[in-house]
Every structure is written in C-alpha cells, then in structure tokens.
Design brief:
By secondary structure, the protein is α/β, with parallel strands linked by helices. It is built from 13 helices and eight strands.
Length: 341
C-alpha cells in the first residue's frame, strides 16, 4: 500500500527533485543519438552505452547528482527487446550479439551503474548519506509516444511478463524505487503496474504518463487522465502507487493535467497519500526528425525552473519535479536553487 515516500522523507517537506534526461545527457557526452524522435533506432546507442561506454553513463549520473537531484534514474529506458533486436539487424560491428536472455543482465547492469555512482558521490563527500535515491526505469516496450503500438488488451499478459523481468532485474541491481514512465495509454500503465506489484511488492512505485501536446491534459492515446486513474483503481493497483507523474511532454501540457489528476486521485484514492508532479521535455516538439535544432531555445534553466517550482509546486501542489529529454544538469541545478529558497 502506498505510504509517505521514503524518498520524500529525506527531502523533508520540499519537493523531490528528479534528474534530467539521460539519453540527451549521454548525447552531450558523445553517445550517438540519431533517427526520428521516439524511434527504437534513435535509442540504440543509449541502450548499448551501459556495456560499451559505462564511464559516460556514470559521468551523466554524477553530473545530475552534483546538480542537486534527489533521485537519479537508471539508464535502461531503451533496454527493451525491440531495441536490442536492432543490434543484429543493423549489423553494428562493435556491439556484439544480444539474445533475449540478455535483457535482465543489461537492465541489472544499469541499476548497478547508478547505484555505484551514488555510492561514489557519498564516499567522496559530494552528497550526504541517504540524500540520493536510485529510480529503476520501466519504459514503453515499443517506440515512445506511439500508443497505437501497444498490444491490444488480450495480448497484455505477454507485456506484463516482460515488465516483470525488467522490474526483477532492477530490484536485484539495487534500486530504491520503481519508476514506470512515458506511458502513452492506460492499459500500458496498468500492465506495468501489475508487473511491479507482483515482482516487487515491497518496493515503492511511481507511475508517469506522457501527454498529448495539445495541452488538453489527456494521454497521447486521447484517454482522459481521469480514465487512466480509474483503470488503476479497477485493476486494484492504485493503492500501491506512491506518485502519479507526467513526463516526456511539454511543460504546458503538464500544467493542464496536474489539477485534473489531483481531483481524480481524490475521487479514487481518498485515503491514500499519492504524490503528483512532472518532468517535461526541453524539445520544441516531439514530431520531428531528431536533429539538434529540436531543443527549445526558450527552455533556459531559469525559465524551466520557474514553471516547475512556481507553477507546478506552488500553484498545483506538485511534490515531485524534474526534467526529461533536453533538460540538463544546469536546469536541475537551478531547480535545486529555487526549491531551497
């Protein structure tokens, strides 16, 4: 059953600050990201970084830790069967050969790298003990934002089975909580939440949805957030959720959705303490060819932090904030500063 967040207890009454986007931070550090935004191909280099360039993954985590993040997220967003299957398809010379059985090993590795980054920061005096937690990422199994690629209801048992493998590997690797993120439709989130409940019944779980860019507050599937919350309740897993968040979407869409999700939670879980919040993209749009020009020039650290802290936290009661794709350590550092004022 959801209780007051263990992560939150380390932050007092302040908002919990999550890190920024790992994929784009790795791109800044030299990992190749190419292809249409949201595609499996685009994320392949990020998936392989854990094994081929682990020092860059560590450096990315350490940058967010130094910036003041309370939570860092494992680098396994793209470590899913559909992405790993591209290694052989694209005949990459240095990537080796990956089979289905490697999924757990590679996910577990991402958890260990993140845990080691936190432990190193503590041992070096960069951060105090128990002030940084590791969130284990549970991502979409197909392309991001593409709700139409989520299997139909009668095929979701297979999806749940893969999610159970991912969650099991994350917990074995030492994560502190499970972060189900970028869910583009309700049944995808329900499947992931069911898997987490089975595979990690004693681990805190956050669920995060990606929203339509029309600022309607609906999911990318068009489903109202109220229906998504009702579906979690109907599946009898809502009481196991510690936070409902929004990510990988525009800041304006998150602003529109926050009051709606707060009201929905009051209806369906009136006696359960569930946090709300968001971590937006720093993109102009998600509908593009993935070039560097997609970064939003107006998304400066100060402007983004103002939206998140003054808007989401102070006006809409958010208690978990951070950044997604295109939000970097300098944004997190400014958010930390404004939270601590």
């Amino acid at each position: 059953m959801a209780t007051e967040s263990a992560v939150g207890s380390a932050s007092g009454n302040k908002a919990i600050l999550v890190d920024g986007g790992m994929g784009h931070m790795l791109r800044r550090l030299g990992v190749t990201i190419s292809g249409p935004i949201g595609s499996q191909q685009r994320f392949l280099g990020v998936a392989l970084a854990n094994t081929e360039k682990p020092e860059l993954v560590t450096a990315a985590h350490r940058a967010y830790i130094a910036a003041g993040a309370d939570v860092i997220t494992t680098n396994n967003y793209s470590v899913v069967p559909a992405t790993l299957g591209l290694v052989d398809v694209l005949e990459l010379p240095s990537a080796g050969h990956y089979v289905d059985a490697d999924l757990g090993k590679l996910v577990g590795l991402s958890a260990r790298i993140a845990r080691e980054a936190v432990d190193a920061a503590v041992s070096e005096g960069v951060r105090a003990v128990n002030t940084v937690r590791v969130a284990g990422c549970v991502p979409p199994l197909r392309e991001s934002y593409r709700h139409e690629q989520v299997p139909p209801a009668d095929e979701m048992a297979a999806v749940e089975a893969v999610y159970q493998r991912i969650v099991t590997a994350l917990v074995s690797g030492g994560v502190d909580l499970i972060l189900i993120e970028s869910m583009s439709c309700s049944r995808e989130a329900v499947a992931a939440m069911r898997a987490a409940t089975v595979a990690a019944p004693d681990t805190e779980v956050w669920v995060s949805y990606t929203l339509a860019e029309d600022e309607s507050g609906a999911l990318r599937s068009g489903e109202p957030i109220e229906d998504a919350i009702a579906d979690l309740a109907s599946a009898k897993v809502l009481s196991n959720v510690s936070a409902v968040l929004f990510n990988c979407t525009s800041a304006a869409s998150i602003t529109a959705a926050l009051p709606r999700v707060t009201a929905a939670l009051a209806t369906h879980a009136p006696n359960v303490s569930i946090r709300v919040g968001g971590y937006a993209n720093g993109f102009v749009t998600t509908d593009s060819d993935g070039g560097g020009s997609d970064y939003c020039n107006k998304c400066t650290p100060s402007t983004y932090a103002a939206v998140a802290v003054d808007g989401w936290v102070k006006q809409h009661g958010a208690s978990v904030i951070g950044g997604c794709c295109g939000v970097f350590p300098e944004h997190i550092e400014e958010m930390r500063r404004q939270i601590d004022l």
